[in-house]
Amino acid sequence: MELNGARVLVAGATGVLGGAITAELAGRGSRVALAGRDRSRLDRAAQVHPGAPAAGFDAYAPESCVRAVRETSAALGGLDAVVVAFGSVAFGAAQDIGDEVAEHLMAVNYLAPAAFFRAALGILRPGSAIAAVTGAVVDRPQPRMSDYSASKAALTTWLNAVRGEARSAGVAVLEIRPGHLDTGFADRPVVGTAPPLPQGGDPRHVAGAVADALEAGAELLRSGPDGSTVVERRAR
Ligand SMILES: NC(=O)c1ccc[n+]([C@@H]2O[C@H](COP(=O)([O-])OP(=O)(O)OC[C@H]3O[C@@H](n4cnc5c(N)ncnc54)[C@H](OP(=O)(O)O)[C@@H]3O)[C@@H](O)[C@H]2O)c1
């Protein structure tokens, strides 16, 4: 898709990666709309993109995800892409995580992105795209991150199934599957403490690759063995 002039909603624009993706898209001429949970961070993000519509939502309330799509679409006169860049993590042994936290991860990392995309698929026209951030845990589920890994794998599976439906409607489906990034995400778990982690990748590099992948109509963006970002035209 052509990003210059495209109307793109970034859900999770208040996060570090979401903010970098928003900045990259705006830099390529897209008309961005922002969605986020934290009101003050959302206001700050909106100040960086004057005139951009901004909608609040909470991943626990699927109707707020649908409302964010409807409101920003109305404000921009339609949408050409919806990028989901929000998420939540927990660390700990499976028996210690607890049902509430497991449910939280599934709600934030799988059900809420699916709610955004269901609303988007109802209005997107041929030539448009949906994109979501999962993570390298989809390929390599990590000990002490079982429910996080499972919630991201659920989203991958959903995207893979939907890709076939969306292709016939002319809508591209991009999965963004990065390795560890230097965003501080691992320091903000809902419970637990992150294991020692290597230096993370630069979220701005991933943001640039996301924009490249959207322009190319690619299906998968993942981290290579050397930490580089690899864009794959077809997901496997
Ligand atoms: N950093 C990494 O190492 C890494 C690696 C692979 C994949 N990822 C994925 O990348 C995505 C972005 O993370 P990040 O690294 O940019 O971390 P981040 O800066 O902490 O961003 C997290 C985002 O998720 C949002 N969020 C969390 N809980 C929410 C809820 N209940 N309702 C609505 N929004 C919620 C936050 O919103 P507010 O700020 O508005 O509260 C924020 O926008 C996540 O999906 C994560 O799983 C990260």
Provide keyphrases for this structure.
alpha/beta; 236 residues; binds NADP nicotinamide-adenine-dinucleotide phosphate; 7 helices; 8-stranded mixed beta sheet; globular
Task: Give an overview of the whole structure.
The protein has about 240 residues and is of the alpha/beta class. About 45% of the residues lie in helices and about 15% in strands. The protein has helices at about 15-25, 40-50, 60-75, 95, 100-120, 145-170, 205-215; strands at about 5-10, 30-35, 55, 80-85, 130-135, 170-175, 220-225, 230. The chain has an eight-stranded mixed sheet, with helices on both faces. Helix 1 packs across helix 7, helix 3 (about 60-75) packs parallel to helix 5 and helix 5 packs parallel to helix 6 (about 145-170). The longest helix has 23 residues, at about 100-120. The model has no long low-confidence stretch (mean pLDDT about 95). NADP nicotinamide-adenine-dinucleotide phosphate binds near residues 14, 59, 85, 178 and 183.
